[in-house]
Design brief:
CATH architecture of the largest domain: Beta Barrel
Structural class: alpha+beta
Number of strands: 10
CATH topology of the largest domain: Elongation Factor Tu (Ef-tu), domain 3
Shape: rod-shaped
Helix content: 10-25%
Order of helices and strands: EEEEEHEEEHEHHE
CATH class of the largest domain: Mainly Beta
Length: about 210
């Protein structure tokens, strides 16, 4: 198995000279929990996260060991210098492990290294971070007709009554019909609701003209 860091822009490839003993990659999405009045906690699924990837126990050998990858340079600090240069230049690399599903764009976040046993071998931990290219969102100028449509969509809804549904709050109803959630205490008074924070499913709320609140 090989661990490969590849700079596509410069067609520059680094194969870690000795395969690390293990690796771990995570994949997931962002989950946000919000609390909705009368309903409780609700989980909202977001989009993909960019988790960190840590390669532990990397060894850059100073000697020709039988377990070195073919073509290994016996100058461990040449590897360190290249990694540091990529890190400092914020170079977007691809991290690839052939034979697995690992093939991701990454940035080098940190390199921690040192010597241990007087052999000249260098041991390192390489911290990578997933990368995603930010693309500008293209928008078109809205004509008069589109602006009118958007304005109409943003206008408060008009109705004489409203039947409470699961998850509704009086402030949300005031926002829906008047475009102003702060009117909910006045809406409660108009409807004879003693506690403006408590409404029940199926309850009918009278929706008067705003001037009557």
């Amino acid at each position: 198995m090989k661990f490969i860091l590849f700079d596509p822009a410069a067609a520059d490839v680094m194969v870690l000279p000795i395969t690390p003993p293990s690796f771990e990659v995570s994949h997931g999405i962002r989950i946000e929990t919000i609390n909705i009045h009368s309903l409780g906690d609700v989980a909202l699924a977001g989009y993909g996260t960019l988790p960190p990837i840590k390669i532990d126990e990397c060894m850059f050998p100073a000697k020709d060991y039988p377990f070195n990858q073919p073509g290994t340079y016996l100058d461990p600090y040449s590897y360190i210098r290249k990694l540091e240069a990529w890190c400092d230049a914020r170079t977007v690399l691809r991290f690839v492990i052939p034979g697995t599903s690992v093939n991701s764009p990454v940035l080098i976040e940190d390199i921690t290294y040192g010597e241990r046993d007087g052999t000249g071998d260098v041991y390192a931990t390489i911290s990578l971070h997933g990368y995603r290219l930010l693309a500008a969102v293209q928008t078109q100028s809205a004509g008069t007709e589109n602006l009118a449509r958007l304005s109409a969509a943003a206008s408060p809804v008009t109705a004489n009554t409203y039947t409470v549904k699961s998850g509704d709050t009086l402030s949300a109803i005031a926002r829906k019909f008047y475009g102003n959630a702060a009117l909910y205490p006045k809406l409660a008074i108009y409807n004879g609701i003693k506690n403006a924070n408590i409404i029940s499913v199926g309850q009918v709320i009278k929706i008067p003209d705003k001037s009557l609140l």
